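Sequence in, structure out. Go.
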Amino acid sequence: MKPVYTLAEALAKDPSRVAKTQSLTLDSSRPHMGLKGSHGLFASEAWWESIEARRLQTQIVTGSIERTYFAGQDSRRGDQVNSFTLRLADGSTVDESIYTNHKQDTRLFVPGAMVTMVYVLDELKAQPAVDGGVNYARTVLEVAVFTQ
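Output:
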């Protein structure tokens, strides 16, 4: 497995993302927008500690890439991909976006490659979810790819 993405590295390159996310959490004039912040502000030391201590739930998705494709309406080069369909062990499929810290690692996302994605589930201010449960933001923490 080759680690190709960590949220920590991505945030180090884009500190404004942290500031914007934290600001929205703290903005009481927007009671239905942003994260709740129950386990620390996004990407704060308390937030990372909540992940380590498992106070914030994580989710792991592993499977084999079935196909890659370009999703969206922006113009692109013919060989550019930004998404893939992942076949899970139970036979179901999920569509995911390609996350990498270094552009050259995008080439590792090919049909047949195994991918593991780790998400953190952080409660949103807007509650409940459509199904009546807890409404979460699902943020990618890590991505690793195994090619043969």
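Check: The chain has a mean pLDDT of 94. The chain has one domain: 2-146.
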